[in-house]
Write a structure and sequence with these properties.
about 60 residues, Arc Repressor Mutant, subunit A, 4 helices
Length: about 60
């Protein structure tokens, strides 16, 4: 099943509680930013960004029907 950007944003807002993590996940899933660009934007290592994205994707995708 495909979800619209507005549906994904709603899920992110509802289930991801860290402001930083919400922004990172939104930029990755909605805007398609690469891990490297996210790393530069948030002044974190690529490894840290990967961990944030993957952890929060698991949370988000577990909420999908």
């Amino acid at each position: 099943m495909e979800y619209t950007n507005s549906q994904m944003l709603s899920l992110i807002r509802e289930h991801i509680h860290s402001d930083r993590d919400r922004i990172i996940l939104r930029d990755r899933l909605i805007h398609g930013m690469t891990l490297e660009k996210l790393s530069e934007k948030h002044d974190l290592s690529v490894r840290q960004i990967k961990n944030i994205v993957y952890k929060n994707e698991r949370i988000l995708f577990s909420k999908l029907p």
